[in-house]
Amino acid sequence: MHADIAVLPGDGISPEVTAAAVAVLRAVAQRYGHRFAMHEHAVGGAAIDATGEPLPAATLDACRRADAVLLGAVGGPKWSDSTARVRPEQGLLALRKALGLYANLRPVQPHPATLGAAPIKPHLLAGVDLLVVRELTGGIYFGDKARDGDRASDLCTYTVAEVERVVRRACQLARGRRRHVTSVDKANVLETSRLWRETATRVARDEFPDVVLEHQLVDSMAMHLLSKPRAFDVVVTENMFGDILTDEASMLAGSMGLLPSASLGDGRVGLYEPIHGSAPDIAGRGIANPIGAILSAALLLRNSLDLPLEAACVEHAVSATLDAGILAADLAPGRAAGTMEITAAVVDHVIADCHVAEMRD
C-alpha cells in the first residue's frame, strides 16, 4: 500500500526518538512491500523559533492531508515562560482540536524484562494488560479561564455528546479485549462527573450489553491502579483525570520511555506519539529510549493504516529486543544501550524474523 505520513519531530529528544520510529517504519515498508511517504514539518518550540507560531499553517495543512501523523513531544526551558503569548503546547492542543481527535489511547503491558525497573513489586505486574482511553478535547483544559487579582478560575465543562463518543469508543475497544470497562470520575463531588457517570451508564447499558461497566472514583482509582493493576481492562475517563492516571500507569511498565499513545477521532487520521516529554536535559546525547516512539508507530500501522500484521511485527521486534537485554538508560543505568543501538536491534528483528509474529497470528 501507499501511505502519506506527516512527521513532526518536536523538541528536545523528540527528533532522536522520532527518527527511530521512522527507521522502523521504513523497515516495515521494505519487509512488506509498502510505500510510506514521510515528510517532516515543524511543531512546538522548533516551529516558534522558525515561524513565530507553535503550529504553522503549513504543518496543519500537511497533517490534514496525511493518512497519519507521527509526533514528538514539544517544549523545553527555552519556551517555558507561562505568560508568553505563544507556547509549544498550544501547537499540540490546536492540532488535536483541528483534526477532531477526542480519544487518547494509552496501552500499558509491562514486559518481563522491565519488571525490575518498576517501583511496583513484580508479582503485582505479571499479566497486566490495560488500556486507558482519555477524553482529549473537553474538560478543564479547554474551559474558560480567568484571573482577577488574587482570584483565578478554570471552568470544567462537558456535554453529553462528548461523553457518549469517548465511552462508545472505549466499549468498542473492550469488545476486542476482555469486555470490561472501568469509568473513572468524581461523581460524589463534581456535577460534570455526575453527567459523565449517567451518560456512561446509559451508553453501556443500551449499546453494549455484552460489556461489563464499573465505576471508580478517581482518588480510589489512583490507589487501585498500583495495588491491583491486573483487575483492569479498559479504563475510560475525562481529560485531566486521564492525564494524571496515564502518567501513574506508566510506572507499571518501568519507565515512561516505553509507552506509546494514539489520539483518534471518527476518521482515519490519527496522531501517534510516545507519552514521555521532550527531556531536554538528555537531548543530543544519544541515550533516549526510542521504544515508546517505535510502539507508537505500531499503533499508527494498526489504527490508521489498517495493517495489523505489520503492527504485530513491530511489537514482536520490540519484545525480542527487550528479551535480549538491550535496554536504554532509563531501564538499565550503567549498562545501557544507546538510542541507535536499540533502534538497529528492532529494525534487524523486523527484517529478519517477523515471520514469528506472522505464524502466531
Describe the structure.
By secondary structure, this protein is of the alpha/beta class. The protein has 13 helices and 12 strands. The strands form 2 sheets. A 10-stranded mixed sheet has the order 2-1-3-12-11-4-5-10-8-9, with helices on both faces. A two-stranded antiparallel ribbon has the order 6-7. Strand 11 and strand 12 form a beta hairpin.
Offer a few descriptive terms.
361 residues; alpha/beta; Isopropylmalate Dehydrogenase; 2 domains; two-stranded antiparallel sheet; globular
Largest sheet at a glance? 10 strands, mixed
Measured between the Cα atoms of the first and last residue, the distance is: 20 Å
- Low-confidence runs: none
How many H/I helical runs? 13
Strand order of the largest sheet: 2-1-3-12-11-4-5-10-8-9
Overall SS class: alpha/beta
Mean pLDDT: 94
**Backbone CA Rg:** 20 Å
Oligomeric assembly: single chain
Q: Mind telling me the CATH superfamily name of the largest domain?
A: Isopropylmalate Dehydrogenase
CATH class membership of the largest domain: Alpha Beta
Strand content: 15-25%
Instruction: Specify the overall morphology.
Output: globular
Number of domains: 2
- The count of strands amounts to 12
Helix content: 40-55%
CATH architecture of the largest domain: 3-Layer(aba) Sandwich
Query: What is the third-level CATH name, the topology of the largest domain?
Result: Isopropylmalate Dehydrogenase
Listing every helix as H and every strand as E from the N terminus to the C terminus, the arrangement reads: EHEHHEHEHEEEHEHEHEHEEHHHH
Question: Brief overview, please?
Answer:
The chain has helices at residues 14-32, 44-51, 57-65, 88-98, 122-125, 160-175, 191-207, 218-227, 239-253, 291-303, 308-323, 339-353, 355-360; strands at residues 2-8, 35-40, 68-71, 103-108, 130-135, 145-148, 151-154, 180-185, 212-217, 234-237, 260-264, 270-274. The protein is of the alpha/beta class and 361 residues long. Helix 8 (218-227) runs parallel beside helix 9 and helix 11 packs across helix 12.
